[in-house]
Amino acid sequence: MQRWPSGFTNAFLVVYALDGALSLADELLRLATGSAALLLPRNALALTVLWVAMLATPLLALTPRLPARLLLPLFASAVWLNYGAAPLPLWLEGPALGITAAALQAGLAALGFLWLWLRSGGQHPWWVPGPEIPGLSLGHSLRVGALLVLGVLPATLAYAALLLVTSIEVGTRGFVAFDRAGVSLDDRRYERGDREVRLVGMMHVGEEAAYREVVSSFAVESTVVLEEGVSDFSGLLEAPLSYDGMAGVLGLAPQDDLAAYLRDPETAKAPEWPVLRHADLDLAQFDPETVAWLERAQAVWNAEGLGEALREAVRASSERPEVLAAVQRDVFQRRNEHLLVELDAALVEYRRVVIPWGALHLPAVESALLERGFRPTASQRRRLLSWRTVGRALF
């Protein structure tokens, strides 16, 4: 009991510091030469640090001879750096993100050595438990155990939510934005000569009034709206794709056909503009594996409660890699390619084209617009749902 806490602490701090230094060296080497020669040992060392941190965390409650004040921040940072380092990707990307994360780890290691050096009175940067520190202490175990249960577990759940939010904002290039009030989506305009394209971020569930407000803004002369929505003319699915279950759980409304939002609520008359044109694929054009996966995804969207939805989501996401690759190719790549063909044709006929599609599709479409010579001219953010509405439904 007297020696292993010292050996473990010092060994972990050294390996943690080496991981930070190797990560920083790898990032700088790739930036300078493009070489990935250090990537394999870097990943192996990072994985070692991560697993030791996760598995050894409960040991902090075992004995006061393990310095929880030193190790717990290092353990937490190892998990944070290996699981996305959110919210850093919102502000940094590419080499800047990698270098910053590696420098942070190296800096934390340096602070750890400094803390030990100061604790020893400036004699050595190593953890040597003093004779006054007992090997076992019920009070210590209760205090640290309570911290781990009451602090670490909620912090883990909070970070998981932060990581999800960061991933969505990064994955949509800001077309989806989260704030304290709710979720907003970007409405961006691009021009080339006398032609204008609007990319309007959408989600399958939201608030009815928000849908009506954004769709009513499409009613402008010489405007065509390229509608999203996979058709199923062959009846390949047992039931039509529906988000009613998910919307009901969250207290929201599933997105309706755009024509429903354009009609006057009192007269049921639709305006002359815009023209609505279906610009999506049919399920018969998808890989059979994708169709089967969509059947399983229906269980997520139509779940009767949040717990059931999470269980079904785990099942749907645990498919074989080749199945998920087929789904990714059909749901995103092929549909985007078809949409761009429809866009090019629409630009010949109409001065204005509106693309109100799921926000995950829009970064690729935006890149294609820029390649076609369009330039961004305006952008506004539209709130689609509020946390207050969702909170009332869930709690």
Report on this structure.
55% of the residues lie in helices and 14% in strands. It is α/β, with parallel strands linked by helices and 395 residues long. It has two domains: 168 residues, no CATH class; 219 residues, no CATH class. The strands form two sheets. Strands 1, 2, 3, 5, 7, 8 and 9 form a seven-stranded mixed β-sheet that branches. Strands 4-6 form a two-stranded antiparallel ribbon. Helix 1 packs antiparallel against helix 4, helix 3 packs antiparallel against helix 4 and helix 9 runs antiparallel to helix 10. The radius of gyration is 27 Å and the shape is elongated. The two termini are 48 Å apart. The model has no long low-confidence stretch (mean pLDDT 90).
Main sheet overview? 7 strands, mixed
Got a strand count?
A: 9
Strand content range: 5-15%
Shape: elongated
User: How many structural domains in the coordinates?
Assistant: 2
Work out the radius of gyration.
27 Å
Which spans of ≥5 residues are poorly predicted at pLDDT below 50? none
In whole angstroms, the N-to-C terminal distance is: 48 Å
Helix segment tally: 13
Overall average residue pLDDT = 90
> Secondary-structure element order, as H and E?
HHHHHEEEEHEHEHEHHHEHEH
Helix content: 40-55%
**Secondary-structure content class:** alpha/beta
